[in-house]
Amino acid sequence: MADAQATENVQAKEEKKKQKKAKIVLTKGKRKTSVARAVIKEGHGKIMINSKSLSTYEPEDIRLFILEPLLIADKMNKYDIAINVQGGGVWSQAEACRQAIAKGLVAFDASLKPKFLSYDRSLLVADPRRNEPHKPSRSKQGPRRHKQRSKR
After folding, report:
1. How far is CA 36 from the centre of its chain?
2. What order do you get walking across the sheet with 24-31 strand by strand?
3. Which residues contact 115 (CB under 8 A, 6 or more apart)?
4. pLDDT digits over 95-116, tens only?
5. pLDDT reported for residue 18
6. Cα–Cα distance measured from residue 145 to residue 134, given in angstroms and rounded to the nearest whole number
7. What Å distances lie between residue 78 and 22, 41, 53, 73, 114, CA to CA?
8. What are phi and psi of 135, to 5 degrees?
9. pLDDT > 70 in the chain, percent
């Protein structure tokens, strides 16, 4: 009897721990040479990019662009998001952040996937385009530039 009660107590404690433990999702978004790694957990809507609050992120159109997945999903103040983004320019970093957020929201709620895909496929699928490497002997001019030829 005592053994049965002890095992029940242990099982009950384990279940309480599981319930207390918040679900955390790690996702990655890519665009050109930018890579954004996001940690998403349930919270109060705090969004940090490279340890800075999104509200201090400038210009405003980039800030709104990053928030698009949350606005589409209508879950503005439900998740705390911490993003670390490296490489590329300002816009490609913003697109990488946007993709990481969208992938994380889909991990929490799979019913959002068709909504995101119908709005903009790049929210969930990385763009495979890369710039073409320069060819030898004309590396300054670009990958396809040739010397001008005279017709006559």
Report:
1. 6
2. 24-31, 34-42, 79-86, 47-49, 52-53
3. 72, 73
4. 999 999 999 999 988 898 999 9
5. 58
6. 9
7. 13, 9, 16, 11, 20
8. -90, 160
9. 86
Query: Which residues are within 8 A (CB) of 117 and not within 5 positions of it... i.e. 6 or more apart?
Result: 123, 124
For tokens 């990019």, name the residue: 49
Q: What is the mean pLDDT of the chain?
A: 86
| CA gap 112, 105 in Å, rounded | 8
Q: Would you say residue 1 has pLDDT above 60?
A: no
Distance CA 73, CA 115 (A): 8
Which amino acid, 71?
A: L
Cα separation, 85 vs 29, whole angstroms: 9
Q: What domains, with CATH codes, occur in the chain?
A: 35-123 (3.30.230.10)
Count Cβ neighbours within 10 Å for each residue of 56-67 and write b for 16 or more, e otherwise: ebeeeebbeebb
Mean pLDDT of 52-78: 89
The CA distance from 131 to 30, in Å, is: 15
